[in-house]
Amino acid sequence: MLDAFSRTVVSADAKTAPVGGSELASLRSYVQDGNKRLDAVNAITSNAYCIVSDAVTGMICENTGLIQAGGNCYPTRRMAACLRDGEIVLRYISYALLAGDASVLDDRCLNGLKETYIALGVPTQSAARAVAIMKSAATALIGQTNTPASGGAKYRKMETTQGDCSALVSEAGSYFDRVIGAIS
């Protein structure tokens, strides 16, 4: 996994040129938005259990056959595996968001995931739907669009750096889309 600094150095080294103008501007932006990035990762990791369990619950509500005898979330052992996989995917998305680089997500999580799911008989449409629900919840937390009105009794206010987080919301969304594309 390369962070923004390592990626810049490797790129400059490959060109046999010093790190210069546009690369330094990109790194400056990365550092300036560092606290927002840390807050975004904190929002995801602090709420990981809720994000994943709500996504799996939503997926099951849309397809109740998953929890019927013979369904892919029946018995509880399979449900636990589904929750575990959701937490793993979310963890690697948070790593990618922290580093600002999707290589760790691609190499350690997505490489061969679809083939594994197919071999195990996991319905990839349902898995992709659960990831889409996770995307919605995580980006709402990052973008601070999670409000008491929409959260109800489970609303939790995160202490975050003030400012526009739309770039981080978009970046996080792209990582979720990457997972959905890999398993669809």
Q: Return the domain count.
A: 1
How is the CATH topology named? Globin-like
N-to-C SSE string, H for helix and E for strand: HHHHHHHHHH
Structural class computed from helices and strand pairing: mainly alpha
Instruction: Give me the count of strands.
Output: 0
Q: Strand count, sense and closure of the main sheet?
A: none
The first-to-last residue Cα distance is 24 Å
Cα gyration radius (Å) = 18 Å
Mean pLDDT: 87
The second-level CATH architecture is Orthogonal Bundle
Residues in β-strands, percent? under 5%
Give the C-level CATH assignment.
Mainly Alpha
Please mark out the parts with pLDDT under 50 across 5 or more consecutive residues, or reply none. Answer: none
Envelope shape: globular
- Give the proportion of residues in helices: over 70%
> Please, how many helices?
10
CATH homologous superfamily assignment: Phycocyanins
Structural descriptors:
single chain; 184 residues; mainly alpha
Commentary on this structure:
(2R,3E)-phycocyanobilin 2 binds at residues 72, 77, 82-88. With 184 residues, this protein is mainly α. The chain has one domain (34-183): Phycocyanins (Globin-like, Orthogonal Bundle). The chain is built from 10 helices and no strands. The mean pLDDT is 87.
